[in-house]
Amino acid sequence: MIVKMHKYLIYGAKEEMSRFFELSQRAGFLEFIGVAHKKSLELPDEAKTILAAIRIARRHEIHPLEAPKAPADPVELAKILIDYQSQYEQLLEEKRVLSTEIARIAPFGDFHRDDLEEIEQNAKRVLQFFCMKSDLAREIVLPPEVLFVGTEYDLDYFVSVNKERAQYPKMIEIMIERPVGELKSHLFSVQENIARLESDIRHYSNALPDLQRGLTDLLNDHHLQLAKHDAAEPFGSSLFVIEAWVPETKVKSLFALLSGLRICAEEIAIEEKDKIPTCMENTSGGKIGEDIVHLYDIPSPEDKDPSWWVLLFFALFFAMIIADAGYGLIFLFTGLYFRWKARTLSAVARRFTRLVLILAVACTLWGFLTASFFGLEIGPNNPYRRFSLIHTLASKKAEYHLAQKDDVYDLYVKEYPDIANAKDGHQFLVDAATTEEGVTKYEALETFYDNILLEVSLLVGILHLSLSLLRYAPRNWANIGWVLFMIGGYLYFPKILDSTTIANFTGLISKPTAFAWGQQLVFGGIAFAFFASLIQRKWAAFHEVTNVIQVFADVLSYLRLYALALASIKVAETFNHMGSGFGLFFGAIIILVGHLVNISLSIMGATIHGLRLNFLEWYHYSFAGDGRLFNPLRLKKTK
Fold first, then answer.
1. 299: confidence class by pLDDT, cuts 50, 70, 90
2. Rounded to 5 degrees, what are φ and ψ at 279?
3. By percentage, how much of the chain surpasses pLDDT 90?
4. What is the DSSP-derived secondary structure letter of residue 475?
5. Are 362 and 319 in contact, with CB atoms under 8 Å apart?
6. Helices (H), 377-510
7. Beta partners for 280?
8. Rounded CA gap, 461 and 618, in Å?
9. C-beta of residue 155 within 8 angstroms of C-beta of residue 132
10. Residue 310: pLDDT above 90?
């Protein structure tokens, strides 16, 4: 539910200001509007320090029972953790430099610089060390004073003995200041310090809950100070003034809060420049839907809350795309497991778990209605399939053609003569079959199933869009005309395609009546939309007529429900067929991996397109958006 907002001017004695803001923060329903025009307060340095420490702690697995007992002050704890992390990063850099230096001089062996200098003094010679690319070294003739030492990777190493220092083309001189042995000893010491610091950082990271509580306390105090900072003092230090947004459901609570304080509140007019916040108050499933709504945009204050609508239709779309009861049961058991673990999770995580359960139940129910279970080929005489909704509708369709003896009947009788003796629709579906290599293929059954599922997708689209249009019909009268247009299209267009709809073969409406009414509704709906818009919006009515293309395209967008479901079913059937040809062990692996891949792809498709149909097609007619969420001063809790 989106709650209407009121704007209040709150003023009173300066001595009561601190107590008022503290009470307001505990109550948590006032969003203050700054009137003092002062420079905003920056986040305290202590909070920044704890934030930096929290970022460090979150990189490690947390064991709260192993948290350090001292220091108790979260700021001091954060400083220790940051200091350890700084030392750790410095040591990592030192380790990198040492490793690079060792790799650079290791080919020359382990010797001390003093020994080298003594040799140079006694021999009256200069020893120099060089390296060059191995492929270049093979192309040149080395001077006699240059001695080959060895090769490491793609570099050749050399030592030269000369009376004076020399340089050689394409060779790089290497200066050796410290022996390899000393460097390795230092590296070992650095590695030990790194391991010690890693242990200390992990130990202090276990205090993450304490750091989070400390940050929460600092932020609560900071937000309180911000609210006080925004108050104006028009008459010196004797009076304070501030404005606030108050939800309509909390107006009485405002005056209850002010009772006993020397503070008054007066409602004031909302100005055109004011950005009114959107206050959404939902519980239970509505709160889950609200979480989904926030993924796309915040409703405007003039919008109607779409939370429940989005939740219900997202669950339906998700189920129609997954289209498998077996997958639904997997989701259900997964959701139940997380619900069992959710006792220690945050409120958002618990709502997500409930969403998983809702989607799982929807998938399972839809899978049973459409007789789909892990892509298994279930025969039409199996009770699971025979008494499913999809088979019942297919049988009704077959009975209709049997009774009408129409072109569909003639087509199948020509291909399958036994159909002429069928007593009911089920026998029609069973007799229209061929067997190749021991596999029976039911042509009429598969065709009727596909046609029905495709039509159901379009019907769901018409229903979904109609609800969207009717929600805002008082604001745009033309919406009623477009609802009539869609209903008319469903009744009339089958005549153009020479097809039979669910409404026809279930006896809801005959074909001639449907065609007659449908044609009138199509053109009548367009005319109604035009004249209603002409009355309400004047010349904008000519633009309204162009929506016929938009509405038609939006209805066709719901065909994705059928297409994605069909793709998921076929992929499951393909992996089942592949696995059956590789024996028990390898076949089971192929089937398991295949279904895991299919489940992953199906979840992505169901999530993306299930939300898309809500956020684009449905929102297009009943959602303004671009709102700003109501953000009152309140005590934040540690997650």
1. very high
2. -105, 115
3. 50
4. T
5. yes
6. 383-386, 389-404, 407-415, 425-431, 443-471, 478-497, 502-505
7. 2
8. 9
9. yes
10. yes
Distance CA 266, CA 11 (A): 9
Tell me, letter by letter, the H, E, C secondary structure of 338-403: HHHHHHHCCHHHHHHHHHHHHHHHHHHHHHHHCCCCCCCCCCCCCHHHHCCHHHHHHHHHHHHHHH
Q: Could you tell me which residues are beta bridge partners of residue 130?
A: 158, 173
- 3-state SS class at 612: helix
DSSP string, 98-141: HHHHHHHHGGG-S--HHHHHHHHHHHT-EEEEEEEEHHHHTTSP
User: In this structure, what DSSP letter does residue 169 have?
Assistant: T
User: According to the model, what pLDDT value does residue 38 have?
Assistant: 66
Q: What angle do CA 558, 563, 566 make, to 5 degrees?
A: 135
Alpha helices in 247-305 (DSSP H): 251-258, 284-294
Q: Measure the CA angle with vertex 636, ends 631 and 639; round to 5°.
A: 120
Q: What is the pLDDT of residue 355?
A: 92
Q: Is 156 helix (H, G, I), strand (E, B) or coil?
A: strand
State the average pLDDT over residues 110-119. 78
Per residue in 469-493, pLDDT tens?
Answer: 999 988 889 999 999 999 999 999 9
Please check whether residue 338 is in contact with residue 290, taking contact to mean a CB–CB distance below 8 angstroms: no
Answer for the pair 230, 92: CB distance below 8 angstroms, yes or no.
Answer: no
Radius of gyration of the chain (CA): 38
Query: What would the pLDDT profile of 544-599 be if each residue is shown by its tens digit?
Result: 888 899 999 999 999 999 999 999 999 998 998 888 888 888 889 999 999 999 99
Q: What is the mean pLDDT of the chain?
A: 89
Whether 101 and 150 have beta carbons less than 8 Å apart is answered as: no
What is the distance between the alpha carbons of residues 48 and 426, in angstroms, rounded to a whole number? 72
Task: Determine the pLDDT at residue 37.
Answer: 66
d(CA 429, CA 414): 15
**Domain boundaries along the sequence of the chain:** 111-178, 284-377+564-622, 472-557
pLDDT band at 439 (very low <50, low <70, confident <90, very high): confident
pLDDT at 542: 85
Residue 238: burial class (beta carbons within 10 Å; 0-12, 13-18, 19+): exposed
Could you give the CA distance from residue 321 to residue 593 in angstroms, rounded to a whole number? 20
Write down the residue that tokens 């030592």 correspond to. Answer: 159
pLDDT at 34 over 70: yes
User: Alpha-carbon distance 335 to 329, whole Å?
Assistant: 10
The residue count of the chain comes to: 639
Task: Report, as an integer, the average pLDDT of 48-77.
Answer: 84
User: Cis peptide before 144, with omega less than 30 degrees from 0?
Assistant: no
- Give, in order, the Cα–Cα distances in Å from 243 to each of 7, 38, 270, 631: 7, 15, 11, 14
- What's the rounded Cα separation, in Å, for the pair 14 and 27? 20
The C-alpha atoms of residue 476 and residue 429 are separated, in whole angstroms, by: 47
Among 48-52, 320-324, 349-353, which is the least confidently predicted range? 349-353
